[in-house]
Amino acid sequence: MQRSQRIINAPIKFSPSQPHLYSQENCLLRFEDNNELLIVKCSSINSIVDDRGILGARAKRRYAVIEAKDEIDDRQSDDDLNDSDARNDMPKQSLSTVRKRKLSASVVQQMDENLDIDSLSIESGVFTKKRRRSLENLMHSNVSPNACDKENQTLEARVVYQTIDDMNRIILQNLEKKFAMFSKKLNQLIPNAVHQHLDSYREKDESFPSKLMYEGQNLLEIRGRDIYDYGRKILKTLYTSQELGSCILPPARNHLARPALDPVRFNIFHEAVRIKYKLSFLHYDNCYTKLIRPRMCDFLIDERKRQSKAAKQQAISDREQDIRND
DNA sequence: TTTAGTTGACCTGCCCTCTA
DNA sequence: TAGAGGGCAGGTCAACTAAA
Q1: Residue pLDDT, tens place only, A273-295
Q2: By residue range, what is the domain housing residue A222?
Q3: Between the CA of A212 and the C1' of B10, what is the distance in angstroms?
Q4: Same domain, A102 and A169
Q5: For residue range A247-277, what is the model confidence (pLDDT) as tens digits?
Q6: Which bases of chain C are under 7 A from a protein CB atom?
Q7: Which of residues 186-245 of A touch strand B (CB under 7 A)?
Q8: Could you tell me if A169 and A275 lie in one domain?
């Protein structure tokens, strides 16, 4: 079959100097597949038939009903927003020109559940002021002299106001959540960064011995990349791997199944760390509790995991050896 | 030089117990 | 009874190493 040559339309390239090439209209869409509500530029819609728009292509194609459409001049500066209402521009197409569809309270509820915060945030900066003013225009325009229509418009505008407020609330909640997480992270980082130098746990003019002997070894000569690494190495020096794999940090507690590490040797651990990093006797307890203990606790737990893993692997290899011998 | 596997340290969330 | 503190399991990440 011979086909006629395909007509290829050159793509229209966007240029900031030619903003008129693209529509500045915004649409409130409700997706048919999941009732999701979304505000997009009309230029983002592939095609519009009556009050329905098609977005995406092929497998990702989605159909949406255009709930509302209005014109926002994004080039307008924020200063203009403060101008009197007398200078308000009229939207090209009012709400009444699109299919009348009352947004019920349940729709607003759905907004809470389905709203895509990222897509909203794209325009969040101008969203409230501009749209609110645009909607004010709708309410005060003479597009529909009919009282009933006017009432419907007012109702729709109220619902949209409510929707916008809900959107803002959701965005704020999301930001607050993010900020709380950030604060938590910061609180974790600050002690690490500040106390890495350990200066706050030191006192001037406090002298420290140059040796701390344990079974003929000067513990102060052991090197670690930081206080935690040094602490782990000291524990490995003072205790056997079996002790490290079966005990918890002192003090022992009745409700805990595992016994605590030998407290006498643990005092040597304290002294080694304190002297090595020249920590004040007065502040050491605080330093140990806040910084060192959590790391050493994790170290013991991980040591337990490692030993358990090694035991399992040993058992497997033993079994394989037995099978080979048989 | 790149890649895959290993290892140790750390993070997170859950559960349990204690205490004010 | 709520909050704090601790143990623990599961997961992630980065550093290291050996093989291709």
Answers
A1: 989 888 888 888 878 877 888 88
A2: 213-325
A3: 30
A4: yes
A5: 888 887 777 778 888 888 888 998 999 898 8
A6: 6-11
A7: 188, 192, 228-229, 232
A8: no
